[in-house]
Amino acid sequence: MSKGIVLLVDDEPEIVEQYARAFKNEGYDVDTAYSGEDGWQKYQARYYDVVIADWRMQKMDGLELLHRIDQMHPFAKVIIITGFGDEDSAIKAHHYHAFDYLKKPVGIDDLSSKVEEAIQRKDGVIAAIEDWVETHPDESSQPIEATLSETQESHSWSAKEILEEIKRNTDRGRQEYHNLIQLTIDLLTRGKIHKDV
Amino acid sequence: MFNYKTMILMRTCLPGQYNPTRISYQWAEAVKKDFEANGWQVLDLAVDDAVRSNAEKLLQNSESIVFLFYGHGRSDQMLGQDKVALIDLTNLNLLKNRKAYIVACKTAKVLGRAAENISRFYLGYKECIRVYLLQPYAACLGNCINKGILAMLNTPDRTIEQARQFIVDEYNHWIDYYSVGAGAFDYFSTSFAAALRYNRDSLAQVFGDRVATLTN
């Protein structure tokens, strides 16, 4: 079982390859991108637990990539690496909700522990559904839900599909996530569960 | 002169193993049996008979005051087997003075509001109804969906407003059972409880006469 899915984005191929090898050896599933544009394309197509992006890249830089990811998926964990290290960059990265901001040179051990920290703070709802889907492969592939709305009649959803929708932050995913949170609020409001439990 | 122990039932059942109307059709069947067991006549337009021309003919010629629909919906339409509107704003007048209990997505939003001064009452859903396709969840949801109309059938002086509260209470019972009660054990049960919560809040307020009963 993979420890998590990591996307590495840097326009220096040798750095990307070095990090990729290290993370694969540690048991992560790793995707690589050699430009901000490539990274953005890959991010839109798949869910990633952590994105590591270099600040300085041609055309779309790390900040722009971070900004786009933040708009699409506010809870994404993006680690920004820069060789410049000025305070303005850190403030901007913070503003776009970077998980952390590391100054070059970044040792693989430091980066690895930062990735591990990001994975530990994974969204609890996603982690719980992921865990269930992984341990129930047959049940999670079975269509379980549809609506009596004519516009959605052609589609029924399996737990696996719903999980993917949540991870990709689609309308359907946001709706499901919202409903799970609303259930918790409803149970709290009606006194069925308590905040300190 | 209306016939007080006749009920009009319209229900679709669209093809496809996972089409939710296969489930809602069964919920309608359960209601039909209960009405018949209580001495009611049920005028049933089912599957291919559930199309606009048949619906209009039946509503024009029947004296029944109770109207039930189970199938796909939009905010301004109940859809027939052929996906053409059975009831929309142009023929809503056919529900004049009738008591409508509608199991379809969103119809309360537009049709229900429009029916407020036409029908005796109109109870439906203002958002989607999320249907779980697996058992026992589908049957459990059916209990919630049908709770109101069966509560009125079994207790003649029960009002539609009270019946609506029965539905909400039934939803709450099963939300608790599948989220924090004995039925809470995996993602299915939690997700189902979340869907029940969603459906409970999709149920609209009663439009029309809130103190009307099934026969009065």
What does the model show?
- The complex is a heterodimer of chains A (197) and B (216).
- In chain A, helix 8 packs across helix 9.
- Chain A contains nine helices and seven strands; from the N terminus they run E-H-E-H-E-H-E-H-E-H-H-H-E-E-H-H.
- Chain A has 197 residues and is an alpha/beta fold.
- Chain A is globular.
- Chain A folds into two domains: 116 residues, 3-Layer(aba) Sandwich (Rossmann fold); 66 residues, no CATH class.
- The mean pLDDT of chain A is 88.
- Chain A starts with a strand and ends in an 8-residue tail after the last helix.
- With 216 residues, chain B is an alpha/beta fold.
- In chain B, the strands form two sheets. Chain B has a six-stranded mixed β-sheet with strand order 2-1-3-7-8-10, sandwiched between helices. A three-stranded antiparallel β-sheet of chain B has the order 4-5-6.
- In chain B, helix 1 runs parallel beside helix 4, helix 4 packs antiparallel against helix 5 and helix 5 packs antiparallel against helix 6.
- Classes of the chains: A alpha/beta (197), B alpha/beta (216).
- Chains A and B meet through helix 6, strand 6 and helix 9 of A and strand 4, strand 9, helix 5 and helix 6 of B.
List its salient traits.
heterodimer; A: 197 residues; alpha/beta; Rossmann fold; five-stranded parallel β-sheet; two-stranded antiparallel ribbon; 9 helices; 7 strands; 51% helix; 16% strand; globular; B: 216 residues; three-stranded antiparallel β-sheet
- How many E strands of chain B? 10
Compressed to H and E, one letter per element, the order of chain A equals EHEHEHEHEHHHEEHH
Which value, in Å, is the CA radius of gyration of chain A?
19 Å
Percent strand of chain A equals 15-25%
What is the CATH topology assignment of the largest domain in chain A? Rossmann fold
Structural category of chain B: alpha/beta
Q: Give the termini separation of chain B.
A: 13 Å
Count of helical regions of chain A: 9
Mean pLDDT of chain B: 96
CATH class of chain B: Alpha Beta
Tally of distinct domains of chain B: 1
Biggest interface, CB < 8 A: A-B, 33 and 41 residues
**Strands in their spatial order, largest beta sheet of chain A:** 2-1-3-4-5
**Looking across the biggest beta sheet of chain B, what order are the strands in?**
2-1-3-7-8-10
Would you identify the CATH architecture of chain B? 3-Layer(aba) Sandwich
